[in-house]
């Protein structure tokens, strides 16, 4: 039996719910890389770096590593960022 990370599964399901009305017809080759996508997602949330880090459950240093392109956000982290972008109230709930 294949192990599936419950957080990844939860975020995948939430992403499907949030984006159910949007066409997701991008080919795998057309997907933006994690670095460029992160920059867009981070800026679109409108959160300060410390608030963004708290909502993501990571350190400010980690967000700085992503922004400097030294580290790449994981697939799960990118999914959470997409959800925060699509529904700004999620980030407020995550910071509580």
Automatic annotation (TrEMBL):
This is HTH cro/C1-type domain-containing protein. Residues 38-91 form the HTH cro/C1-type domain. CDD domains: HTH_XRE (cd00093). NCBIfam families: PRK10072.1. Keywords: DNA-binding, Transcription, Transcription regulation. It holds the Pfam family HTH_3. SMART domains: HTH_XRE. It comes from Buttiauxella ferragutiae ATCC 51602.
């Amino acid at each position: 039996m294949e192990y599936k990370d419950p957080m990844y599964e939860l975020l995948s399901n939430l992403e499907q719910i949030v984006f159910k009305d949007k066409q997701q017809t991008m080919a795998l080759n057309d997907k933006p890389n994690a670095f460029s996508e992160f920059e867009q997602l981070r800026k679109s949330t409108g959160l300060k770096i410390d608030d963004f880090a708290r909502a993501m459950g990571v350190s400010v240093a980690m967000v700085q590593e992503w922004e400097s392109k030294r580290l790449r956000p994981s697939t799960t982290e990118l999914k959470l960022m997409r959800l925060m972008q699509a529904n700004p109230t999620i980030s407020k709930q995550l910071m509580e």
